[in-house]
Amino acid sequence: MSQHFIENIKIENFKCFENLEINDFKRVNVFGGKNNVGKTALLEAIELLTTSNELMILIYHVHRLLERRQSSTKKIDLDLFRRDSMSSPLHKSFSIESLSMSRHEKISISKDFQKDIGYSIMFSIGDEGIGISPDVFDKTFYYESRDSQYRKPVVSSYFVKSSGIDGDEVSSIYGVVIECGKEVFLDNSINKFDPSFLSFRIILTESGIIPKIKMNGRDEFIPISEMGEGIGRYIAILCAIWASQDGFLFIDEIENGIHYSNYKKLWELIFMASEQANCQVFVTSHSKECIEAFNNVQQERNDDTGRYFELYRSEKKQRIVAAVRDAEQLHYSLTHGAAIRGE
Predict the structure, then answer these.
(1) How far is it, in rounded angstroms, from Cα 173 to Cα 157?
(2) pTM of the model
(3) Which residue, 14, 129, 149, 179, is CA-closest to 80?
(4) For 105-127, what is each residue's pLDDT tens digit?
(5) Please, what are the domains in the chain?
(6) What is d(CA 116, CA 323) in angstroms, rounded to the nearest whole number?
(7) Phi-psi region for residue 65, left (φ > 0), alpha (ψ -120 to 50) or beta?
């Protein structure tokens, strides 16, 4: 694997994870399991690890993570810690580290209330610390500092949310496709998704920049908003691979909005394009059909670049753990009725 790829991760006291250790990551990694076993939280933990190697960068990415997940609320909650943690609610810490690219000592966040200024929030990694008052996630602090030298990303990364992809988001990452000279790749990919789709472009109109598709038999380009959620998500994932070149791509609930008949095509493109873009991919899925398509593709490739992990709550250990299955083991589970989604 590429040198920058992570191979193992250990997480303590982060979200629902008391103590989780996972080994044997490959280039394309899929996480399955029941609801509330931490699939999305695991993506977030890996994202924090891979994108943050300095304290100020960590603060920025924690803010971005929480804002992305809590965009519908006015007050961002520091919900990074296990709810049943024995640590004080005003002083908590978590640890995320990789055995192959160790970056973080224990990360601590504490609050201190002062009468004149309200809450002061302290971030620290090991002995290094910084306090921001009255609120580390205040918009002014975020927008004033996001373009400083500390905001330069360690590596390229992109997180595709489980919810719908809007046109502005697709437009923003399409620019990377242009920079990489991958317009033909994208056009060929959407044609594979649906033979009636010929090409994809971002069109400047009086109303603004609008992502559109050229269809067979139609003279004009059609806004992707008229095509349904599936093609927009499909295009966003393909663009996101190149936005994550030489870095990391995270896709939450990859099957959302995409018809099951296109799962295999999508996995073929993810395996192929992630190899070309040299990015490591981490995906969650609820769909047995989607996991089967993933397994079919990795078996056909026979290059050991994919891995499946099942998250489940162990009755014996009384905590969430992960079972790893290579292509052969996953195929056996799928064909013999074994649990693959935490059943």
Answers:
(1) 11
(2) 0.84
(3) 14
(4) 666 666 555 555 455 556 666 66
(5) 8-107+138-156+244-335 (3.40.50)
(6) 50
(7) alpha
